[in-house]
Amino acid sequence: MPETYCSGRARSALFAELVRLFGSLRHNELSAVLFDDLHAAPNPGLVVTAARHAGCTVVAACREDGIAEPTSLGMLADHVLDLRPLTEAQVDELMTGAVRGVLDQSVAPAVRTALGSLCGNPGAVLSVLESLRQQGRLVPLRGMVCLADPDQPIALPADHELVRLVERLTDTGPQLVALAATADRFRVDDLLAFAESTGRDLGACGRTVDLLVAAGILACDSQGALSVSCPALATTVLAGLGEHAVLALHGGIAEHLLRAGHPRLPQPALVADHVALAGAALPPTPDVVPLLCAEATRVLAAKPELAARWYRAALAHCRADDPARARELTGSLLRLLVRIGRYDWLGDFVAEVVAAGVPDGQRYEVAVGAALAALHTGAPVPSKVWDELVADPAGRAPLEFTTRWFEGREEIRLDELAAAFAPFRVGDLPDGPQPTPDDWGIAAGRHDLVVLFGYLLGDEYGRPRGGPLGLYHRVITGYHRGEWAEVLSAARALELCGPAHTPVHQLSRLLATEIRACEGELKLAAEWLAEAREDCPFPAMWSWAEIGLLWRAGEVQRAIDAGWRGYERAAAAAERGTVVGLHWLLVRLAMLESEAGNVDKLLELSELARKWYGRYGGRRLQMAELMLGGLAERDFASAHTAVEVLRKHDNQSELMRACLIASSVADEPRPWLHEAYDIAKRLGGDRLRMVIKARMRECGVTPPRQRAASQELSEVEIRVIALIQRGLTNRQIAAAERVSEKTVESYLTRLFAKTGCRSRLDLATASLEGRLTLPGCDRSGTA
């Protein structure tokens, strides 16, 4: 309040004017006055009292920690409502209502993770969504709103009150936040090094930390370690400082700690961390290399990513006249980055090695590093790196493999993959069962490079957290497990990641086409199919998806005609050795011919399945031969064998088709139709259930009755419910199950859909009380 109104008379005059102001707003009618952020007013009680004196209904929102005397303000209120942070479900609902469209299931967890302690704050949630929208990172794609560049950090808007609060603390506040956000461990005891290296007063630095902790910006644990409570705030503060300033900050601390004659003996880990984080801001200091190597080795088992950062700094500070150490560090770091799956770091590191000069005898290793980084991140090998490495025959094979991959004109060949990457492995094969030739063939047919690299490199290979290969692994794994929501989310993310015409992009689109068609979303299915080129290297898969879409649109004869045309292209590709999707195409075309009553065509397809299985073998074509033999020759034994084999291998869609075929040749179709119907319910495809229910009516079979959820939930879903009952968060459940938080979100989404529960609490309570059941009704409300 201005000093003009400090006297009692002046405040009385101000009060009278406020009453007159609020009274003028009424216009002889009842009026309500809304005060938001009332805690920001210098004398909130005076304003509220004036409005009420004028006869207005007052609704005020304020923070208790922002008012000197919150109790006195509360005494003025008829009702006080304590607004607690929003729950996860409420945050999700808020975000869904704030965007124009349906949010992809990966968006909400990403926003909540970025907000950290602010994830229950509606203002923060909405401001971040608006910021993402303005940045073009909320992208509509195939019926959903998706997050573009999901690996990039999410930032709080620059005008957020917490950002402004940090900025008001001169340079000290932003720098302290930057240190807490970037250092492996920044403790209160480390303030002395910060103060001395920046020339600041230690007491003032301590008071700034107190303010940041009091405001909830920093958290301080029992050992004095400081951390940023909201990662999105840290992202904004770091961007405001700029990369050069952050490097210089760490460089100044590192130089201070390394300075000769320093009165204290700092912890080696503290020195190593600031040296590594200083990057090029710290001049070459060869004397620090032994310390960096020793500390990296010490933390390698517990914190491999931190060890990699310190090894990389050691290499940067190596003496030019010590090629042996440089060579050792280069090889060790390349393999470490592959083992921990940090392919984003690997690409940058390879570029640094090439720029500095590849050590003798390591061109093949560096070329493999460049290739693995490109494949996993979706960013082709930079031209300078390519030109330097491809000139040596030793590095040519892995680099040429990436070229063929990004062109997307042909399927992968196992012999080429093995020749390019298998020599990178240096250790023995791990103990235990090894992948069989059939395992290799299936992984190659699925084009799941994550699995194939695991077979090739064993425990020397780390599965990626994201990137095109990681996303496609989620697509193909989720499809075979029947986790369709997860598949579609990963497929949409893949569309926004890397070059658009790699083999995995094409296969992902075809699987998304199939899922959307099964769900009855024919327009979206057609969009996915159009995006997958008809001339892609998988003609059988493309035709399988096409005729599935036509059939579900009610165009059976057109689907049959398209299927035979597609088979001609698929057969030509099979003659060249490409059989990806051939087994699915044969089975689908045979089921269509059976539906149309074309016995001769059905027998012909059975012979074709036998022919291709005889030539190429493998479990997939074996299943096609068994299923078509059962269908064409009414051989229940073959159909039953196919079902039993598929039950042991994770492919829910194919198992459902096998059950349908078994039901058509069995003396008693009921159990096979019930199993197919249960699978269709779990998959979530309305159109699938309609087809199976029509078959049931033809056979005089009624749909299965409602059963206890424990009879139909998977083992993983049952474990998730048990962990929820113990009070674990999604992050803790992810750690216990060794999956990502996104996967836990996917499990919960399916559990809510299956059980009708609307929250984690409802799910846990229903399970504890024994009333957790799976409704036997589809979305139309019929059994």
Structural write-up:
This protein is mainly α and 783 residues long. Among the domains are: 3-75, no CATH class; 88-147, no CATH class; 538-625, no CATH class; 634-701; 711-774, Winged helix-like DNA-binding domain superfamily/Winged helix DNA-binding domain (Arc Repressor Mutant, subunit A), CATH 1.10.10. Helices cover 63% and strands 4% of the residues. It has a 3-stranded antiparallel beta sheet with strand order 5-7-6. A two-stranded parallel sheet has the order 1-2. The N and C termini lie far apart (68 Å). The model is unreliable at 775-783 (pLDDT under 50). It comes from Kutzneria kofuensis.
Descriptors:
mainly alpha, DNA-binding, three-stranded antiparallel sheet, two-stranded parallel ribbon, 783 residues, flat, DNA-binding CsgD family transcriptional regulator, WalR-like
